[in-house]
Design goal:
- This protein is about 40% helix and about 20% strand.
- The chain is built from 16 helices and 16 strands.
- A hairpin with an 8-residue loop joins strand 3 and strand 4.
- The two termini are about 55 Å apart.
- This is Histidine--tRNA ligase.
């Protein structure tokens, strides 16, 4: 058989054990925050019917969907693009088994045919929480609070959540007399403010056919968000300013009232005001948003830390209605788990010591005659809930200790002829070279104590 050069598809990655354990640390810590707010886990399949995904994201996004087809398959399938549309489909399919409001979280891979580059992959994990069935803005404030606490629990403090409302953005367009395609183009142009600046957006709007006077009025409103100003008082002052200017646009007033309620609930929830800001230029690209939208960004001057948003989401009250007779109010947020992991690696934010292997104890084997005793000890330790490896093969004790150290195994059980004859086990903790001897019957309790594992 011809040898094959090992390669990965473009934009895909392997995760070796140590790296995967760090990722699991992040995912588990975030999941605990989700559950602290009452969100429950949900799993949807990797493949969805094409009809489930198409027509939900916008033309530009749907060009990135991976289509999957078995040669003998009759169904047209695609890899999931995100976790939101599958949620809408799953709820509509199983709603008789679920209660409203339905709070769910899902942490799973998605696929997009992006152009691979630093920090951008074709397969990556999304980390979502969504609340279905709550019309009031308390749900929006809740998912924002979830995102803020999750980022804090991971160790981030220099970030802010920017809030806006799709109704306000549409209202601004109506205020200057836009409708139809020019109104849709307004979203796309404003969304580029961070990349091309105020002058760049102004030029793009002019090129799209909007007259200079309406463009000036638009930029006087959304361009003011170029400098982020955090705090509840600042947000309310700017909302009042917009309310005065847009007093004749009912849709804009509705969006402003919703934002004010969100800010009130966030303040009552004790979300730090240094982490909250109103940003009228923030758009969010996906087409299904209908109300408040939000995005967490890092407040860092380091160009290497400009990785995009840390989290983002919003209200999408119409999406579930595509899968059932009537729609339901829904709001959610997605954490950029891949970007967070990159930043945590760069900043050295993982607690030390962080496990590099799942193995807690290596049972050494002095010689083959003692292997049965080593196997019995390993079985005893596993019954106590420990993760145990028995050294395979033959090697001198020094090499076995070096193997454990390289793997990051914290504890080695030494069971030689002298220990076996005396009915004891010697343990060596590698991080500080501490050694202790205990009766064989107490080996599990001693190992747990050396590993600082609480005993039942």
């Amino acid at each position: 058989m011809e040898k094959i050069t090992p390669r990965l598809p473009s934009g895909m990655r392997d995760f070796l054990p140590e790296e995967l354990l760090r990722r699991q640390f992040v995912i588990e810590r975030v999941a605990r925050v989700f559950e602290a707010f009452g969100y429950e886990p949900l799993q949807t399949p990797v493949l969805e019917l094409e009809e489930t995904l198409l027509g939900k994201y916008g033309a530009d996004a749907e060009k990135l969907i991976f289509h999957a087809q078995h040669p003998n398959g009759k169904e047209k399938l695609a890899l999931r693009y995100d976790l939101t549309v599958p949620l809408a489909r799953a709820f509509a399919l199983h709603e008789s088994k679920l209660s409203l409001p339905f709070r769910r979280y899902q942490i799973a891979p998605v696929w997009r045919a992006e152009r691979p580059q630093r920090g951008r992959y074709r397969e990556f994990y999304q980390c979502d929480v969504d609340c279905i069935g709550v019309e009031g803005m308390e749900a929006d404030a809740e998912v924002i609070s979830v995102a803020v606490m999750a980022l804090q629990r991971l160790g981030f403090s220099d970030f802010a959540v920017k809030l806006n409302n799709r109704k306000l953005l549409t209202g601004i367009g109506l205020y200057v007399g836009l409708e139809g395609p020019p109104l849709a183009d307004l979203y796309r142009s404003i969304d580029k403010l961070d990349k091309i600046g105020v002058d760049g957006v102004r030029e793009e709007l002019l090129k799209s056919g909007i007259a200079a006077e309406p463009v000036d009025r638009i930029m006087a409103l959304v361009g003011s968000g170029a400098e982020l100003e955090c705090g509840y008082a600042a947000a309310r002052a700017r909302l009042a300013h917009f309310r005065q200017i847009l007093s004749d646009v009912p849709l804009a007033l509705e969006g402003l009232a919703e934002l004010e309620r969100v800010f009130n609930y966030l303040e009552a929830s004790q979300v730090p005001e240094a982490m909250i800001a109103f940003d009228p230029s923030m758009v969010r690209g996906l087409g299904y948003y209908t109300g408040p939208i939000f995005e967490a960004v890092l407040l860092s001057a380091d160009p290497e830390e400009r990785v995009g948003s840390l989290a983002g989401g919003g209200r999408y009250d119409d999406l579930i209605g595509l899968f059932r007779k009537t729609s339901l109010p829904t709001v959610g947020v997605s954490l950029g788990i891949e970007r967070l992991i990159v930043l945590m690696e760069k900043r050295g934010m993982y607690p030390e010591p962080l496990q590099r292997t799942v193995v807690q104890v290596l049972v050494s084997v002095f010689n083959e005659a003692l292997r049965p005793a080593a196997l019995r000890l390993a079985s005893q330790l596993r019954l106590a809930g420990l993760s145990v490896e028995v050294f395979a093969g033959s090697a001198k004790l020094g090499k076995q200790l070096a193997y454990a150290d390289k793997r990051g195994i914290p504890l080695v059980a030494l069971l030689g002829e002298d220990e076996l004859a005396a009915g004891v086990v010697k343990f060596k903790r590698l991080r500080d070279q501490h050694e202790t001897v205990c009766p064989s019957a107490e080996s599990a309790q001693q190992a747990q104590a050396l590993l600082c594992i609480p005993q039942n």
